[in-house]
């Protein structure tokens, strides 16, 4: 019997290893194949648009010949229009205000694309937005209003501010000074670098387009939300800059025909973030300013009462800017535009012929795109004698109506002309809606191929698990139930948006199950420990309010810690002290005169950096005694302080690796714990100050798990649940807006895609990576002398879950690809699934975890 069992084990493990390896190799293949079908680059019409012979005579004269385009990043509509705003510019009657709808994804790069081309950008631009070195998404060869202004050859193009413009428009600007958008702890210098150029440029007359992109308001939102005490000050600063520019337009002769446009690229939610589709994120302000607008502007209620949906005054699409600027500045509508001319400006042209020219040109340009997209006829005879409503498709109905509108365009009766104008405006909006809804084409074959590869990975992981996994039936059933319920949940948008609740309740139920499992040895110590664990879990769940519906709602950080910064710092310093004591315990064999100063110096450097960083990042948290501590640590720059911490961590890590190489036995186990505590210090460095005390709670949970006699299935289940739970507890979600970039540049003085990418990942997955390290400490204790059987069981179960969850996400995205929330909910979820599968699973759990397990357990 024993021989037979050993035979199956010896024969099964190598086969299981092969199957497991192939399953993990297929995960990135499935992700890549599916992504190429789900996030294709959109085709575009090359070349610059020109006025054609269809129009009735020459184009109408443009009222403006020069443009100042001022973008204030994350300028939500209420920041400008509502009561309590720091902006007062529209109160003087020289402005025409709108709320511009910014479609998801509400991040800078795709929004600039929409503003300048009038088109609907790809959701893939969310990824490209994070890579400042990327040039594959350039608009240099596309028709934009910048290209049209350059083609006019009436002046130079200049740009100051967010260097995303320089990436999108290489070799376009004659003068430029770009600033990085990812140094989000800077509220002041990033804007001063823009403002310092304004006065000199306004005195010069050699330009026709000036782009200004301010970032400080967005940074304030990311740091402390839209209700930050810094927000009114920044709004007043931006209002002052608008007034400075407007005064120059009034007084400088060469600026008399200048149009000033103030807008936000997107808004922000109640937590100060953006990227998703909440009302605050999709409602930036849009204001046109010029003395000439006084003749056509209407009386306004200023300031406007606050409204929950952030819809102030007239609402337009952000893409409507392109055709509107074309008419106001005298150039053709860009070829790929889906925007509609804003009819409020028709009053600039009292002649009916001019108004007909503008609207007909805009409608023909959109009709040409629609005809190419749907393969419908451009010839009016194709619809002769046919009633438009009787045609089979919406596109054909719109084409028929367009030919009818063009045919009857000439009116002498003002009332008929007004009706025609209204009908064309309605047609433009309907055509815009149809084209925007089909703006993303899917390669269904690639979607099915990616899903098929994921299914093969699931089957291989399942086969491998059947071969090697051994454990109690209740634990296996619980693991299977978690995987199945999680997969089914991916088909419901509300569950995807509020995924954290699934993990919170599943982790809590799992801990109760483990408590019940250990109930046979109830002791006072065990009871107190269990109580501490359950309380810790409840605190973890309530630490940060996340998700979509309740982001920004009250939580432990907002209610207890932020109003009491001294209590917060007591917890922070207690966490650092815990790490310092743990490091001292693991570094034995050194003279205390050497060991203690080195460990204290490393921890003190980490505390010094966090104090200085928080003082820049959230100065309202550095008060009282903490401010006095900060004065004691004044001196080096943040970059130098961070580098000191990283160098110290690297040096101690080399010592730990030295312990792992020849010694074995207790040395290897001690070295593994040393690496765990060193990573904890790194995780604290890469986490927001308010999240640092969470690691105290995580340590309580870890100690509890170590006190139990867990089998491998229970260790793996605990690891999986706590990795996801801790991710959401730290403030993560399935929305792009929750990506934390505040620590992405620690120790870096300039952009480096590899370093920034790694630091961004550690910042956002600091807690899940911590649990990977903690899991290895549990697994090493379970090693029974086999050829990696413990680790193989662990990875087989994790791979099965990752492959299964990825397969369900792909199935949901494929089945719901025409769903209303495909770009706002399911597409971001797929991006997060990519990060979990490639980053956390393959790189951390399989790669780093496997290396640590092998090194730490060799001596057992």
UniProtKB/TrEMBL annotation:
Q: Which domain of life is it from?
A: Eukaryota
Query: Any transmembrane segments, and where?
Result: 12-39, 447-469, 476-496, 526-543, 568-587, 594-613, 642-660, 751-771, 791-818, 830-855
Q: What is its main location?
A: endoplasmic reticulum
Q: How does it sit in the membrane?
A: Multi-pass membrane protein
Q: Does the keyword Ribonucleoprotein apply?
A: no
Per UniProt, residues of the GPI ethanolamine phosphate transferase 2 C-terminal domain are 439-857
The free-text function statement in the UniProt record for this protein reads:
Ethanolamine phosphate transferase involved in glycosylphosphatidylinositol-anchor biosynthesis. Transfers ethanolamine phosphate to the GPI second mannose.
Question: How is this protein named in the record?
Answer: GPI ethanolamine phosphate transferase 2
